[in-house]
């Protein structure tokens, strides 16, 4: 209809449209028109109208040839509020999806009067009151989703009439009372999810006998009684989550009937008895988490038959015996957690054959004997918790092979001998090194000083003697130190973290003196004590640093090349996978949200998903994601970022991930890209951002002169302000204790005013291993930006970020890419710049002459920035400035 029609004519047309429909289906579609108008008035959904033909409205489906009988309304995530009870006056309605809106009030009981109603999704709203018993009238209902609302009261008994229910989702409400017994009698029930409520009483006996139950998720309630064996009887169960209840009794033997069971989470209950050996028949098992129960007996060797097992958490039970040797066959095992049991025997060496093991927690048991020489066996081990056992002997020298270790807990054992110098090779140590309450003797190895990322060092309550080596001043990240209750002597070296400690960190060493102890060294050793001692240790430190630099450069080159190749292969694979997806039918969106209310109407999630199917929409391709441009039906342009390395864990930890995203959406800094929403479907996660019309810094620096003649060379002041923007964004991130995982010019986005915003911030949160979302060990950043120490540590750190930022600065100054052929084989931009003096080249020959020759002022500023860039790209992490300092230096350069 032409928009310019005068109102009177429009009214006439409307009447003309409606009349035949009324005549064709009296009382049917005519009634629908009235109900639809009422809904439109109440909810005002976008895309409803201006036409009067409600069948043409967005999200509305009518039956063919029915003259306007509405069969489905799909309006998820439209920011809707208001009364939708008028939907109950649509007699042909089979499907109503109003999920993720802002609906309040009660669930309209009248919906129960719809004879053809099959699908009702009101999840993620703010609906309150009870689940209406009248819904029982909708006897055709198969899918009912009321999760994530504020519903209260009991699940009404009347709903027993809904015999056709296939999926019932009630999680995240305030429901009380027991799960009704009739749930067990529903013949088609496949999914029952009612987690995070206040449900009590037993799991209905017989549940799983009448239907092929696949998913049962009831965690975080107050359920009592036993896990019914009936759940496993038909063998169809795939996911069982009962964590955080009060369930008792044993794990049913029948669990082994479920060949497709991948997830079992039954931790934090009161389960007792043995883990049944039949568990080995559940061959698909990926996660088995039964911690904090009262389980007894041994760890069944049959678990070794679950070849896909990734996580085995049996902590805090009453398990006894040894860790079965055969568990070493679990190639996919990433975490073995058995702390707080009565396990014993020698260190389970066979476990070291699990090449993917990143966490081994044997703490609080009774393991004894020596630690194996190859304690890490070149593996991916990040967390090794062996404290509170009876291990004896020395720390094996092989500890130096633990190249990815983040935390080592060996406290409260019977370990002895000298602390091996090889400990200094574990440069990755970051969280803690705790050797307290053992019998270590001899002197402290000065190699401890190489652990420049270590935050907590506890060597207390041993028999360590000699002086505290001055080299320990190399531990630049140290915050907490405890050397108390040893036999140390001499002066405590002058080193911030030492002097800032409590006296109790050094007490109990009879011959130790100086700050923070209240003991004057003069009183013990005379006034000249300690002078020569220091000079020597500086020289040693210099020699150590020198050789480290050499080794770093060799190793980093090899690793960088290797990782580059691996990445190339992965990209090809990813492309293939994406191409295949095009044929796949419409994806099933698992969850999605727009964080910013004013944008909720403008964003359509299906359009976001579909945009990623077309290569033509691709904007850029980064380490962790590919970015697409998506044009919404509303006309808005959105950046859609598809995460690559999303493993199943991310999807599994969806809730955490979503929370993290929501938190990030609230981190407000003008130089950080904020997520505006997300879509999770199948195995994919899409993050939505504002579209940045001026592309990335990479494009600005390197793509400009090819085609677009009107786009002139960027000027220096603009580049300098971009550099400062990025530095400020990064400094802010570090201030909130976040490390960026992929700093590169391709991740610096430019808005319409050429303000720079650092992107991919969320990646560091989504992949953070401590958040349990994924393993970080494969993460390095982009080729050419990877700090050299990464070769050793496999860990991205604050100084590592500074290095990558320094590379971006060099790119800006030189207009060259981080890796270019002209630098020569094995030479990257950093090395090319740092070796310029040796080649007899002046800064002029390094900096882009199109910028540096424009004016003396520009040249002076560029030279100052070059100095900053050189500092940032120092090989030794400790020599690099903090980002806060970098911002100051750049601002100084700008004002010079
Ligand atoms: C609600 O549950 C239904 C049926 O189980 C499901 O199809 C739908 O995807 C769920 N809605 C959301 C937003 O997860
Ligand atoms: C659930 O009920 C408790 C008290 O009964 C109340 O404090 C809480 O706010 C309710 N939660 C919701 C989501 O309504
Ligand atoms: C389980 O708990 C119920 C009460 O919640 C109790 O009656 C029953 O005896 C307990 N069973 C076992 C095996 O402890
Ligand atoms: C293990 O996982 C792989 C990949 O997900 C799957 O193809 C395979 O069937 C699984 N094995 C078992 C026994 O379930
Ligand atoms: C160490 O790892 C290798 C594979 O790299 C394996 O063959 C060997 O059995 C492992 N050694 C021990 C003691 O587990
Ligand atoms: C486990 O390690 C093997 C190689 O040892 C690798 O191919 C596989 O992808 C790893 N699995 C996981 C889940 O990391
Ligand atoms: C080190 O381990 C001991 C137990 O062996 C523990 O008591 C102590 O708190 C730990 N130290 C730190 C700093 O966490
Ligand atoms: C250091 O460890 C001892 C136990 O060995 C403990 O009593 C003391 O409180 C600890 N000091 C600090 C500062 O943690």
Automatic annotation (TrEMBL):
Membrane-traversing stretches: 540-564
Name this polypeptide is given: Protein kinase domain-containing protein
Domain Protein kinase: 613-896
Example GO molecular function: protein kinase activity
Superkingdom of origin: Eukaryota
Annotated InterPro entries: Kinase-like_dom_sf, Leu-rich_rpt, Leu-rich_rpt_typical-subtyp, LRR_dom_sf, LRR_N_plant-typ, PRK1-6/SRF4-like, Prot_kinase_dom, Ser-Thr/Tyr_kinase_cat_dom
Signal peptide stretch: 1-24
Keywords assigned by UniProt, alphabetized: ATP-binding, Glycoprotein, Leucine-rich repeat, Membrane, Nucleotide-binding, Receptor, Repeat, Signal, Transferase, Transmembrane, Transmembrane helix
Keyword check for Magnesium: no
Membrane topology, record value: Single-pass type I membrane protein
GO biological process, one term: anatomical structure morphogenesis
Cellular compartments per GO CC: membrane
Keyword Signal assigned: yes
Location of the protein in the cell: Membrane
């Amino acid at each position: 209809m032409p928009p310019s029609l005068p109102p009177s004519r429009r009214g006439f047309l409307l009447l003309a449209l409606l009349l035949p429909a009324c005549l064709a289906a009296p009382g049917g579609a005519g009634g629908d028109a009235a109900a639809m108008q009422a809904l439109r008035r109440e909810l005002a959904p976008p895309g409803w109208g201006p036409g009067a033909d409600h069948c043409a409205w967005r999200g509305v489906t009518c039956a063919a040839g029915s003259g306007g009988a509405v069969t489905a309304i799909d309006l998820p995530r439209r920011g809707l509020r208001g009364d939708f009870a008028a939907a109950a006056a649509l007699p042909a309605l089979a499907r109503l999806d109003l999920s993720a809106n802002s609906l309040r009030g009660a669930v309209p009981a009248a919906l129960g009067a719809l004879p053809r109603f099959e699908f009702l999704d009101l999840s993620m709203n703010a609906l309150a009151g009870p689940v209406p018993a009248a819904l029982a009238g909708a006897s055709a209902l198969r899918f009912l989703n009321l999760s994530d609302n504020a519903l209260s009261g009991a699940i009404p008994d009347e709903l027993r009439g809904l015999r056709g229910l296939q999926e019932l989702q009630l999680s995240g409400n305030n429901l009380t009372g027991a799960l009704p017994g009739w749930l067990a009698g529903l013949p088609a029930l496949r999914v029952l999810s009612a987690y995070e409520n206040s449900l009590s009483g037993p799991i209905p006996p017989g549940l799983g006998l009448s239907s092929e139950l696949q998913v049962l998720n009831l965690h975080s309630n107050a359920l009592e009684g036993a896990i019914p064996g009936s759940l496993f009887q038909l063998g169809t169960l795939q996911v069982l989550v009962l964590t955080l209840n009060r369930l008792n009794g044993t794990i049913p033997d029948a669990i082994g009937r479920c060949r497709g069971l991948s997830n079992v989470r039954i931790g934090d209950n009161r389960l007792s008895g043995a883990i049944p050996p039949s568990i080995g028949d559940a061959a698909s098992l990926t996660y088995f988490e039964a911690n904090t129960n009262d389980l007894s007996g041994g760890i069944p060797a049959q678990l070794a038959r679950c070849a896909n097992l990734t996580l085995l958490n049996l902590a805090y039970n009453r398990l006894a015996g040894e860790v079965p040797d055969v568990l070493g066959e679990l190639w996919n095992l990433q975490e073995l957690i058995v702390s707080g049991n009565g396990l014993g025997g020698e260190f389970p060496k066979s476990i070291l054959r699990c090449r993917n093991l990143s966490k081994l927690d044997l703490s609080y048991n009774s393991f004894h004997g020596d630690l194996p020489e190859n304690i890490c066996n070149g593996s991916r081990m990040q967390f090794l918790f062996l404290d509170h056992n009876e291990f004896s002997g020395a720390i094996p020298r092989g500890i130096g092979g633990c190249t990815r270790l983040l935390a080592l807990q060996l406290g409260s054992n019977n370990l002895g001998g000298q602390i091996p110098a090889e400990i200094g090779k574990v440069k990755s140590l970051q969280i803690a090194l705790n050797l307290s309450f053992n019998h270590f003797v001899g002197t402290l190895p000065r190699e401890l000083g190489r652990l420049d990322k270590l935050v907590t060092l506890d060597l207390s309550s041993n028999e360590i003697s000699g002086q505290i080596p001055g080299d320990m001043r190399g531990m630049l990240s140290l915050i907490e130190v405890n050397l108390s209750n040893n036999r140390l002597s001499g002066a405590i070296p002058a080193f911030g973290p030492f002097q800032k400690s409590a006296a109790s960190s050094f007490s109990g060493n009879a011959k130790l003196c100086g700050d923070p102890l209240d003991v004057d060294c003069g009183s013990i050793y005379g006034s000249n004590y300690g002078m020569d001692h220091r000079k020597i240790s500086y020289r040693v430190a210099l020699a150590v640093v020198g050789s480290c630099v050499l080794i770093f450069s060799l190793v980093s080159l090899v690793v960088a090349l290797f990782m580059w190749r691996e990445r190339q292969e992965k990209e090809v694979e990813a492309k293939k996978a994406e191409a295949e997806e095009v044929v796949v039918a419409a994806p099933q969106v698992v969850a999605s949200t727009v964080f910013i209310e004013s944008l909720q109407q403008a964003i359509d999630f299906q359009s976001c998903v579909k945009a990623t199917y077309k290569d033509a929409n691709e904007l850029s391709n980064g380490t962790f994601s590919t970015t697409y441009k998506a044009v919404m039906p509303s006309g808005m342009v959105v950046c859609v970022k598809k995460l690559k390395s999303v493993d199943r864990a991310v999807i599994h930890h969806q809730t955490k991930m979503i929370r993290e995203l929501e938190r990030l959406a609230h981190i407000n800094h003008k130089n950080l890209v904020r997520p505006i929403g997300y879509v999770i479907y199948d195995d994919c996660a899409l993050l939505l951002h504002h579209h940045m019309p001026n592309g990335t810094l990479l494009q600005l620096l390197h793509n400009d002169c090819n085609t677009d003649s009107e786009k002139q060379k960027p000027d220096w002041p603009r580049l300098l302000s971009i550099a400062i923007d990025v530095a400020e964004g990064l400094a802010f991130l570090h201030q909130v204790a976040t490390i960026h995982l992929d700093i590169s010019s391709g991740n610096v986005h430019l808005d319409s005013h050429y303000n720079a915003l650092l992107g991919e911030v969320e990646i560091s949160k989504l992949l953070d291993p401590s958040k349990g979302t994924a393993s970080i060990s494969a993460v390095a950043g982009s080729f050419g930006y990877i700090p050299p120490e990464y070769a050793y540590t496999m860990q991205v750190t604050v100084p590592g970020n500074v290095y990558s930022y320094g590379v971006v600065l060099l790119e800006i100054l030189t207009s060259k890419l981080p890796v270019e052929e002209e630098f020569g084989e094995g030479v990257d931009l950093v090395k090319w710049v740092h070796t310029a003096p040796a080649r007899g080249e002046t800064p002029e020959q390094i900096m882009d002459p199109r910028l540096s020759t424009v004016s003396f002022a520009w040249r002076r500023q560029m030279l100052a920035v070059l100095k900053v860039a050189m500092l940032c790209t120092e090989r030794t992490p400790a020599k690099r400035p903090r980002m806060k300092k970098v911002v100051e230096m750049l601002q100084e350069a700008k004002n010079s």
